[in-house]
Amino acid sequence: MAYPASVTLYEVGPRDGLQNETARLPVEAKVRLIQALSACGLSRIEIGSFVRPDWIPQLADTDQVAQRLQKRAGLRYSALVPNRTGLDRAVASGLREVAVFMSSSEAHNQKNTNKSIAESLEHFSAIVPAAKAQGLFVRAYLSTVWGCPYEGEVDPRRALEITQKLRAIGCDEISLGDTIGVGNPLQTRRIVALFLEGGIEASRIALHLHDTNGTALANCLAGMELGITTFDTSVGGMGGCPYAPGAAGNLATEDLASMLEGMGIETGVDLEKLFAAGELAEDLSGRKLPGRRLQAALGRRKPGEARKAAST
Amino acid sequence: MAYPASVTLYEVGPRDGLQNETARLPVEAKVRLIQALSACGLSRIEIGSFVRPDWIPQLADTDQVAQRLQKRAGLRYSALVPNRTGLDRAVASGLREVAVFMSSSEAHNQKNTNKSIAESLEHFSAIVPAAKAQGLFVRAYLSTVWGCPYEGEVDPRRALEITQKLRAIGCDEISLGDTIGVGNPLQTRRIVALFLEGGIEASRIALHLHDTNGTALANCLAGMELGITTFDTSVGGMGGCPYAPGAAGNLATEDLASMLEGMGIETGVDLEKLFAAGELAEDLSGRKLPGRRLQAALGRRKPGEARKAAST
Question: Which of A244, B1, B107, B265 is the most exposed place for a label (fewest CB within 10 A)?
Answer without folding.
Answer: B1
